[in-house]
Amino acid sequence: MTTHSTPIHIAEMSAPRTAPSKGLLAEIAEFWRTFIKAAFDPYHPEQHYMRGPGPACARKLGKTAK
């Protein structure tokens, strides 16, 4: 049985550090821009949707509201 006595340096074991590519950073920034815009958009058209004539129209036509 033989053992290797070659020292292993910690720096050799870890992967080399490189800065993230600008494409990745741009994608992350675009995601957050889109997310913030969608999450905090004050306009919600479903809140302004009307299903028919309201009580003012019924009074105008002389109908009783249910």
Q: What is the topological layout?
A:
Blueprint: H1 10-13, H2 22-39, H3 55-61
Structure description:
By secondary structure, the chain is mainly alpha-helical. The chain has helices at 10-13, 22-39, 55-61. The longest helix has 18 residues, at 22-39. The protein starts with 9 loop residues before the first helix and ends in a 5-residue tail after the last helix.
Order of helices and strands: HHH
Please, what is the average pLDDT? 75
Number of helices in the DSSP assignment: 3
**What is the tally of beta strands?**
0
- Give the biggest beta sheet: none
Structural class: mainly alpha
> What ranges have pLDDT less than 50 throughout 5 or more consecutive residues?
none
The end-to-end span amounts to 95 Å
Helix content: 40-55%
Task: Summarize this structure as a short list of keywords or feature phrases.
66 residues, mainly alpha, 44% helix
Short description:
The protein is mostly helical and 66 residues long.
